[in-house]
Amino acid sequence: MKIYVDIDGTICDTVEGKYDTASPIPEHIKKINRLHDEGHHITYYSARGQRSQTDYTALTLAQLKTWGCKFDNIVMNHKPDYDLMICDKTKRIEEI
Question: Using one digit for the tens of pLDDT, what is the confidence trace for 9-61?
Fold first, then answer.
């Protein structure tokens, strides 16, 4: 399956606009990593910077790597085509 995972509010706690201080949620990251290990295609998705027109791609990639996230792709500020989205506003991480 192609699985899209929202970042803020799903795999980390973030104060809006202060993405550099985001705190990872290790148990949520482990769940997504397990899905990746099972062979699913994981794409992390974020609207970071959409309002401010700031590009947070480099920061976000660095955070995902530092937090030990396994993934195949990252999408910033673009609505994706997906089979399942795990997000704080749709299917919540606690439901998997």
Answer: 999 998 877 999 999 999 999 999 999 999 999 999 998 888 888 999 999 99
Round to whole Å and give the CA distance between 79 and 81: 7
- On whether the CB atoms of residues 86 and 80 are closer than 8 A, the answer is no
Q: How far apart are CA 58 and CA 28, in angstroms?
A: 22
Distance, in Å, from the CA atom of 5 to the CA atom of 43, rounded to the nearest integer, reads 6
**pTM here?**
0.82
Vertex 76: Cα angle to 13 and 28 (nearest 5): 35
Question: Residue 88's pLDDT is what?
Answer: 67
Report whether 17 contacts 36 (CB < 8 A). no
Q: Tokens 């998997």 label which residue?
A: 96
